[in-house]
Specification:
8-stranded antiparallel beta sheet; alpha+beta
Length: 622
């Protein structure tokens, strides 16, 4: 019993000591609460801008739209948003009063960890709240009361200023305060409170530490020495409030950039690797430069001002998904598309070849035309995919216009590619016609072949087709390593060694031949037809234009000049093509080949024979 009583006495003594030690703190807290209560009793509800709200008290509330991304659409869901001291509470109420998918449990954005920021977006009606894990994009909804840009912008500024104030408060509170006494954070908190209605004017509400009664006009932080309400002890130790950073000077780190999807080293391997001693703070980088190089182009330029709560995409979902991916790199507004079609070349500010090709893949179908032409609302209400499709449906003969741009750009490239190929075929035909040594080699082949066939009891021939050149290496002699080609080379070395250099007269056959003469002629005919289509299309669109703008007139003039230029080039190319055809026909006649013999095959046989002849010659000489 004695031991138990002694233990109880020791506990009582300890509690008494703790009570005496903390009594000063308790008194200070009690005084502060009394001052808050007293100050609140003086305030009118409309002017309630100073004093620290109790945790859970709603400081500001209203309806906001929250962006939610889905597979192919961006959806805005309406929420009742309540701002309290340490958090932002979101209660889903659905769209247009509907509550089908509403979550009875409120979403909460915690402001008290000191790492939350609020940022104005490009539009006058949107702002985002960024935490470590998430980025919440809010929008001021259009209502009957708030249907003007000025009203919405005012509400946006009010939300941003209020949330920014409490984010700044918790950020300051999370930092260590050296040299301040107990209760300093409370005083600093009160000093940071700025009237939401007077923020633009720089007016501050009276701090709780001052016992002055409320005034109808905004009061500043300064209290005149002659005031009948002297500053309290808590007020005396409070340093001047920190200045708020200008909202327009946001660090690039607050904006989104492209992510670097690297492969992270597992945590269990860090300790024994070079990364254990590495730190990102060791190297100084130019963050603004990195941001300029890798920031994400904000597509809200097109869709940020949409008044609709939901932006369901009208276009087929599968097509819309791929089209939306393309549009993320297509940095052109929908209303700029038509004027881009009047610029012929990319270097003049026109579309790139890749963009033109991509747009051709997404040309509106007749069903799309009917659907978008029946749309009577404002384009700004639509998703960016639908905005582009709507604009494309408004452009007459869009497919022909895109084809025209591609044709005009491809014509000079194709002409430049065809011209050297045609010239090479002309030179090859001339070499075959002029080479006497090659004919002499063919005569040796004829003599050897007739000798063998005569001894084999077969008829002798007057000549052979050039396809037989490929069979010389296939006929093997008594010794398997000796072929008819080896015998040919030996006979030439024995009787006319100079003929072994016959390939020097056939230099155009060094490489494997490319396109055939027939194919080249067909390519030239295609270019003629495409140029004719350009000419006809120019006449068509010019006849449909009642009164051309300056840009349209310049477009027609440039198009006319290019047509005349390409007509001249194609005329010269066509003449060279006719010359090539005649030379090849004469070559076929000279060697007794069929009139429909493909040049690619014929030239290929000769080219392969030259390579094999050289190889066997080198073997025999060695």
């Amino acid at each position: 019993m004695w031991k138990i009583s002694k233990k109880t006495m020791l506990q009582n003594d300890e509690l008494m000591y703790i009570y005496q030690r903390d009594k000063g703190k308790a008194d200070a807290i009690s005084n502060l609460v009394n001052k808050v209560t007293q100050n609140n009793s003086y305030r009118r509800p409309a002017d309630s801008c100073s004093g620290r709200p109790a945790k859970g008290d709603v400081i500001h509330e209203g309806l906001l739209d929250l962006q939610q991304d889905s597979f192919v659409s961006i959806k805005w869901v309406k929420y009742l948003v309540q701002l309290s001291e340490g958090e932002l509470s979101l209660f889903c109420i659905g769209n247009n009063g509907e509550n089908k998918n509403a979550d009875p449990v409120a979403k909460t954005i915690n402001l008290s960890d000191g790492n939350v920021s609020v940022i104005k977006e490009n539009g006058y009606d949107t702002f985002s709240v960024q935490t470590k894990e998430h980025n919440y994009l809010f929008r001021i909804p259009f209502t009957v009361q708030n249907n003007q840009a000025e009203d919405i912008s005012k509400l946006q500024n009010e939300w941003v200023s209020l949330i920014d104030r409490y984010c700044m408060l918790w950020k300051k509170r999370s930092e260590p305060q050296d040299g301040f006494g107990e209760g300093t954070s409370e005083a600093v908190y009160e000093k940071l409170i700025i009237s939401p209605n007077k923020r633009a004017e720089g007016a501050y509400c009276l701090a709780v530490g001052s016992e002055a009664p409320p005034q109808l006009t905004p009061l500043t932080e300064q209290t005149t020495p002659g005031s009948s309400f002297p500053l309290s002890r808590v007020q005396a130790v409070v340093p001047p409030p920190p200045s708020f950073p200008p909202p327009s000077r946001l660090s690039p780190a607050w904006k989104r950039t492209k992510a670097f999807h690297w492969d992270v080293v597992p945590q269990d391997k860090i300790q024994k690797s070079i990364w254990a001693s590495c730190s990102q703070h060791k190297k100084k980088i130019d963050e603004s430069r990195i941001y300029d190089q890798f920031h994400i182009q904000d597509m809200a330029v097109f869709s940020g001002n949409e008044p609709s709560a939901n932006r369901h995409i009208m276009l087929n979902q599968k097509i819309a998904h791929t089209f939306n991916i393309f549009l993320k790199s297509f940095h052109i507004k929908p209303n700029q598309l038509k004027e881009k079609l009047y610029i012929l070349h990319e270097d003049g500010g026109g579309l790139t070849d890749e963009q033109i090709t991509a747009l051709r893949r997404y040309l509106p179908t007749p069903k799309d035309l009917e659907m978008y032409q029946s749309f009577k609302g404002s384009p700004s209400e639509l998703h960016v995919v639908d905005q582009f499709m709507l604009e494309m449906c408004k452009i007459p003969h869009l497919g022909q216009r895109l084809d025209l741009l591609l044709t005009i750009r491809e014509l000079p490239v194709c002409i430049g590619d065809l011209e050297p190929l045609i010239n090479q075929k002309i030179r090859a035909c001339k070499e075959l016609q002029d080479s006497q040594k090659f004919v002499a080699v063919l005569e040796y082949i004829l003599a050897i072949g007739n000798y063998l066939n005569e001894k084999a009891g077969r008829e002798m021939a007057k000549g052979f087709q050039l396809s037989s050149l490929t069979k010389l290496s296939l006929l093997r002699g008594k010794e398997r390593k000796i072929t008819l080609l080896h015998a040919l080379v030996e006979q030439i070395f024995l009787h006319e060694p100079d003929l072994a250099k016959f390939s020097q007269e056939l230099t155009e056959f060094e490489a494997v031949p490319g396109a055939s003469i027939k194919g080249l002629r067909a390519e030239v005919d295609v270019l003629k037809k495409e140029l004719e289509n350009v000419i006809q299309y120019r006449k068509f669109i010019k006849s449909k234009t009642i009164k051309a703008t300056t840009q349209e007139s310049q477009f027609y003039k440039e198009l006319k000049d290019l047509i005349q230029k390409y007509e001249g080039h194609l005329s010269q190319l066509s003449k060279r093509c006719d010359e090539m055809k005649k030379l090849y026909t004469d070559t076929l006649v000279k060697f007794g080949e069929s009139p429909d013999q493909d040049s690619q095959e014929l030239f290929g046989w000769i080219s392969a024979f030259i390579r094999e002849f050289r190889k066997v010659s080198a073997d025999i000489m060695s």
